[in-house]
Design brief:
172 residues, alpha+beta
């Protein structure tokens, strides 16, 4: 665990987002095999300045694209995959060294370097996500029509709803 915590750096977060398949310099292994970060999709809104409109990139669409595409194969064929519905705590400022706080990659105001992957709406969790924060897991398979088909649903009966974390006050 100590070695994983030592890998929680801005440099490694940038490598996780922009060079996931690169070789990790200190171990010689593929970075995707040793990254301390977990990619999550929270969706985002992109701006088309020329058209004067906003474009919504929904979290589920992005998650499905990554879960059901075999990126190890150069042809990138469709494959079965799982999408988990969960929550993580995100800080208002970058805090890469704090393991329990996720990083909001999609937040352009944090001043991180440019990323062509902004539209993914990524939030990067660190080391693990407690099972009490995972609501369910859905399995999707490619159908002959090319569409994705929901084939399994696993519901976590020990899920702990995050309502207690919300800054909401009751009405008088």
């Amino acid at each position: 665990m100590a070695a994983a915590i030592q890998r929680l750096t801005e440099e490694n977060l940038d490598r996780h987002v922009n060079n996931f398949s690169s070789v990790e310099p200190t171990t010689g292994r593929k970075f995707c095999d040793v990254t301390p970060f977990i990619s999550l999709s929270a969706g985002c809104v992109d701006r088309d300045v020329a058209a004067r409109t906003n474009i919504t990139h929904r979290a589920l669409r992005t998650a499905l694209e990554f879960a059901t595409t075999d990126y190890a194969d150069p042809a990138k064929p469709a494959c079965p995959g799982w999408v988990l519905y969960c929550y993580v705590l995100v800080g208002s400022n970058p805090a890469v060294r704090i393991p329990t706080v996720a990083e909001e990659i999609r937040e352009l105001n944090h001043g991180r370097a440019y990323s062509g992957w902004y539209w993914q709406g990524e939030v990067a969790a660190k080391l693990h996500i407690p099972s009490a924060q995972i609501l369910c897991a859905e399995r999707y398979e490619p159908a002959p029509s090319g569409r994705l088909r929901l084939t399994d649903l696993l519901l976590n009966l020990d899920f702990c709803h995050p309502a207690a974390l919300l800054a909401e006050r009751s009405m008088l």
